[in-house]
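Researcher: I'd like a candidate sequence for this fold, 249 residues long. If you have to choose between options at a position, lean toward the conservative one.
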């Protein structure tokens, strides 16, 4: 998972312990006396952060989107800044649920020069797709783009996200096709991959067909069921994602 990989860059995690060691270390450490002081210091530090956060007004001077958030009824900050943790491109929030992150990302934001609004969004697994419209007030113009937010939960923290957009060619292609018609083209190659993804998902196969498998050590399967999609190879039956279906052999 992306969040586990990112977390190991700042610490280490041992399979047999429920606790994450947040300091730098060279080898995994198991639950013994050496771990207890580090765990205690981490818990105390987290408690101090929560106490300091509760004592200050709940506002964010700058959001991850780069928009200054003024006071007013339009802006509804969901979390306070000291409760956030940045990890290699990811932003996690202590105590936040998946629904909290989605609600925070799709809420409108506005300042004196521009307005940020989500005009369409959907969730596919742990990927949030959104069509964003930015209104530049002084220039009297609008801009739209497709945003891709990867969602994940970090152990000992909460849910968080990593944001990308179409021009960066995110290697995720479950974006709804109708979103492509709502936004000017920013990456034609990525859009071709999105259309191919949906074409493969909507592809119909028949029981008894011998179909090649892409990106797998299993070269092909004989379709044994269409709902769910399963195939047989070497005396074993496999559940096959439609995105991995190749040519009929």
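Model: Candidate sequence:
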């Amino acid at each position: 998972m992306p969040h586990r990989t990112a977390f190991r860059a700042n610490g280490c995690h041992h399979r047999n312990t429920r606790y994450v060691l947040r300091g730098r270390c060279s080898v995994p450490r198991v639950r013994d006396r050496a771990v207890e002081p580090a765990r205690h210091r981490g818990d105390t530090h987290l408690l101090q952060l929560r106490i300091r956060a509760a004592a200050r007004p709940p506002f964010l001077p700058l959001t991850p989107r780069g928009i200054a958030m003024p006071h007013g009824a339009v802006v509804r900050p969901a979390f306070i800044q000291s409760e956030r943790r940045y990890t290699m491109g990811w932003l996690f929030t202590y105590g936040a649920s998946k629904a909290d992150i989605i609600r925070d990302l799709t809420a409108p934001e506005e300042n004196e020069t521009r307005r940020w609004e989500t005009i369409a969004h959907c969730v596919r697994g742990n990927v949030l797709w959104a069509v964003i419209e930015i209104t530049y007030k002084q220039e009297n113009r609008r801009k739209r783009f497709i945003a891709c937010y990867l969602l994940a939960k970090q152990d000992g923290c909460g849910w968080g996200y990593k944001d990308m957009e179409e021009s960066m060619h995110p290697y995720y292609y479950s974006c709804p096709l109708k979103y492509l018609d709502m936004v000017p083209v920013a990456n034609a190659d990525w859009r071709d991959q999105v259309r191919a993804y949906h074409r493969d998902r909507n592809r119909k196969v028949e029981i008894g067909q011998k179909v090649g498998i892409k990106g797998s050590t299993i070269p092909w399967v004989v379709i044994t069921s269409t709902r769910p999609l399963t195939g047989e190879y070497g005396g074993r039956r496999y559940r096959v994602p439609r995105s991995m279906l190749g040519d009929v052999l």
